[in-house]
Amino acid sequence: MSYLENKKYVEDKFKDWGDIVKREFPIGAHREVKVFIIYIDDMVSRDMLEEEIIKNFMVNVRISPPNKEVDFSDPYDLLVNGGVTTADIKESNDIDEAILEVMSGNTLILIENSDKILIISSKGFPKRGVDKPETEIAVQGPQEAFAESIRINTVLIRRRIRSTDLKCVQKKVGNISQTDVAVMYMENIADKRLVNKIESMLDNLNVDMIYDSGFLEQYLEGNEYSPFPQIQLTERPDKVAAELVEGRIALVVDTSPFVILLPAVLASFYQASEDYYQRWEIMSFIRIIRYIAGFIAFALPGLYIATTIYNPSMLPTDLVLAMASARQRVPLPTVVEIVILELIFEALREAGTRIPASIGSTLGIVGGIIIGQAAVDANLVSPMAVIIISVTAICSFAIPNLALVSAYRLIKYFIIFMSAIAGLFGFVAGFLFVLLHLAGLESFGVSYIAPFSGVSEDEYDKVKDTIFRFPYKKRKESHFYKKLEEDVNEQ
In the chain, what is the straight-line distance between the N-terminal and C-terminal CA atoms, in Å? Predict the structure, then answer.
């Protein structure tokens, strides 16, 4: 289309946009050529735009006499070679593509007597700087977290991996939102078939809006009915860098402070960044504690119900008598008592998340101690039930990944239900059902319980960073996820 047609088309598209800025002005020594500039206010760097672009157009650009080294017969060449001092520019012949760039924070320039469209990178929208992690806190190690800007996040990763093998393929996802998503991977390590599969899924994703990486996660996961997370989210750049070197793939979503890591296995949700910044002995011990705490977090209430109602003979006599004495005046059955206390704690957890941080600790003290003690004194619940719920809650906080904690919160009620029906038999049956479910899950072709599933003797090095963290000198350089993917494809 011509200059006037493009100008009218753009003005019609941005009609009734109160935050759009547009201006037409002449350039050149005799002001014989016009340009039309349009951008969104507060989404661009106005200092750069006014000093580097508009000022040069109006003051420094000269059409006559022509420069012998530059062909000024096309005004587009004049501006690119004589008026634009920034390096990040783009040429386009598609007006719709140029409009999308404007909505991404860039500046569109239409040039009279030229069918080319000039797009200048001028992003400068408000953004949060690099802050400390809030959900993956580490006492020792880097204290940087991702922000809501895709460029800040990719830079934080590249700062840690200074290799040309680190690739970053950027795509737009969402028919309306057109959210930028960067696919990052190590070219010589990651499985190229898996990279192509992920890129194809993003290209074929038919969704209007992508609000956050958690929104995209739900479209990419294989089994949407499983409570277990099949894709890992993290806010730590050091964790992403380490996983990329292991062969995993990272999806950096614009406007989200969390980066997607895939594929994901169960063992990866028990690992924390701090595990690699301290000595292997203490961190191996802490990992064992995490696995034990993970089991207690979903199994203890059901086990308590099964033993006290159906199999009290398994407990020491003194303990059974003490528990029976404490429950003499409690009017509620054990199952109802446990379920009510669990639901109350879930409400306290949710309330503590939503209220301001300054009074969150106060709510925990009031809800956890005062209300619990008052309920025991009023003979509404037994002291043992309060202890069981408290230990379960403490163990859930020992797991370093919130998505896995959420899965255990749901499974816990399933185990309670099975234990209430059939005692220890129901507890064991429910636990086996969960194990079978885990064994059947896959994350982009990788078994969810890898590397514990099908590891041969010569592949023993794969398990040296799961339940235990072996010394670095005793570990071979093995790209864990790439090898797992190759094993799956060979089968």
Answer: 55
Asked whether 44 and 108 are in contact (CB, 8 A), the reply is no
d(CA 483, CA 489): 10
Q: How many helices (H) and strands (E) does the chain have?
A: 17, 12
As a whole number of angstroms, the distance between CA 3 and CA 108 comes to: 13
pLDDT in tens, 349-379: 887 777 776 666 666 666 667 777 888 888 8
Which pair of structure tokens corresponds to residue 67?
């420069």
Count of all residues that appear for the chain in the document? 491
What's the token pair of residue 46? 């106005």
At 21, which helix (H) or strand (E)? Answer: strand 20-27
491 pLDDT band, cuts 50/70/90, is very low
Report pLDDT for 126: 67
- CA gap 213, 361 in Å, rounded: 29
Q: Which 8-state DSSP code applies to residue 67?
A: P
CA dist., res. 434 & res. 107, Å (int): 54
- The DSSP string of 262-314 is ES--GGGGG--GGGGTS-HHHHHHHHHHHHHHHHHHHHHHHHHHIIIII-GGG
Q: Which two tokens stand for residue 478?
A: 């093995």
Locus of tokens 């072996």:
470
- The one-letter amino acid code at 190 reads A
Nearest Cα to Cα of residue 54 among 29, 88, 24, 77: 24
Spatial contact of 207 and 201, defined as CB atoms under 8 Å apart? no
Looking at the DSSP bridge assignments, the partners of residue 36 are 24, 110
Among 166, 162, 157, 165, CA closest to 260? 157
In single-letter form, the type of residue at position 351 comes to A
Of the CA atoms within 13 Å of residue 258, those in its CB half-sphere come to 19
Give CA–CA dist 225/96, Å, rounded. 39
Averaged pLDDT score across all residues of the chain: 84
